[in-house]
Amino acid sequence: MAFTLAAFALLAALYLYRIYHKSTNGICTTLKTLEGKTAIVTGGTTGMGLEIAKDFTRRGARVIIACPFEEEGLNAQKIIQEKTGVKPVFKLLDLGSLESVRSFAGDILKTEDRLDLLINNAGVGVPKNFETNDGMNFIMQVNYYGHFLLTILLLPLLKKTGTAFEPARVVNTSSMLHVFGRVDLNTSKSGINWLPFISYCNSKFSMIPFSRELTRRLKGAHVVINSVDPGAVGTGIYYSGGLLFGAVLRYWTIFFNKTPKEGAQTALHVALDVRTGQTSGEFFKDCQQARAIPTAYRYKTSKVLWEESVRLVRLTEEELDKCLN
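-> structure tokens emitted (325 positions)
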């Protein structure tokens, strides 16, 4: 009898837990169209990125999805075309390679007339820590440094596109786990003595002070940069922790927390909502402006991170001046 009551209580608690999370998930409600607009979605081939790309395509945007795997990209093109009737553009981009980021950005600047939305969504979970060919921690480079370089290189096109009435927008995907992160320059390297989990938290934390520092440096430009916490979302990123464990955790999260479509809502809100278009350097969660961990707002933190990022991605003073000014 006691066991039955305990089991019933557990099931009731889990049911209430699910109801609470599903009912508090933010939903992007804007009906804004994107006819004539161009959007780039990194990691736009799976998970939340795929959902964002589908939404933008339905709204009439020219959507460019980017990832390092050709088969995955071609499959995403097919899925989006089947769902929307429009085929997006697919381009290869390996955020774990500075050469690939530069090549991708150069191609965009050469072939595109405008860039209204840059969604820095791609990311890896917690595979083993190792050093990339560029001498950086793999998780940090893919999740943060690659996006840092990409954003800086695309600024000329973003600034050219943005207007006072309709600024260009950059959306940086952070995580609820940013609360365990900090700017630790040791994890920029191979991070042999660091748990992959810590590298992941640091990479997602970095997106927030980066957004704030870039906002300060672009004062007067018609480009807004904000970061988002999508919440606990059941995506393929969990498989980096192991196939069986990843599958269990992914479907648990989908059922009790957020599906990829639900997880994409805050990024869509920040990319499309009229009021957020006048807000820059802020942090959003469940389609509302929120507060990140206090250390993310320290000026010294963002300054140190900026300087180290410029050095590690090998931006020259001439390049930086050209992109910013």
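The chain has eleven helices and eight strands.
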